[in-house]
Amino acid sequence: MARLRMIRHAPALHGGALAGRRDVGADLGNGAALAALRTRLGAAERVISSPAQRCVQTTAALFPDISFAQDPRLWEQDFGAWEGVPFEALPDLGPLSRTELAAHRPPGGESFADLCARVWPALQEIAAGGDAVIIAHAGVIRAGLAQAVATLPAGLAFEIAPLSVTELRLIAGHGWSIAHVNWCAP
Length: 186
Prior knowledge:
By secondary structure, this protein is α/β, with parallel strands linked by helices. The protein has one domain (2-85, 95-183): Phosphoglycerate mutase-like (Rossmann fold), CATH 3.40.50. The protein has helices at 31-41, 53-62, 98-103, 112-128, 138-149, and strands at residues 2-8, 47-49, 69-70, 132-136, 165-171, 175-183. A six-stranded mixed sheet has the order 3-2-4-1-5-6. Helix 4 packs across helix 5 (138-149). The radius of gyration is 16 Å and the shape is globular.
């Protein structure tokens, strides 16, 4: 069994605008939450981060004494022309079903289905190497959950809070299971 503990980066310093592939820093000001999460995680043998600045900063804050790898397949969804657009100016996708939303591709960007196609092989490869802690984005964690429940649109049903832990397990011969979702420090 391989255990993947997936952590969403600390709150993004996005300035009120969409930041999928837009590289913004992390707000690491909540030292109590970082300390509680560090305590909960304990020692980590293998740590892998998205190359995004907000993920690298969160990883360094959680594991200051560990050398960690970066995997470009763990980047957030590319929202194309919507990157940097203020949240209130983004189109309303509320009328779309989850299936339609998973297939929707912003102009010049990728859909959630595209994100899953990129992330799923990465998670399989990481799990093949044994237990790991992954610091990434909400979309990447949702992709992992979609893989575990074996339905792509279901991944979009999960809310993923900053600095939360979602644990997936790959059990040989049985596939993926979800140990817990969205655990946040008190």
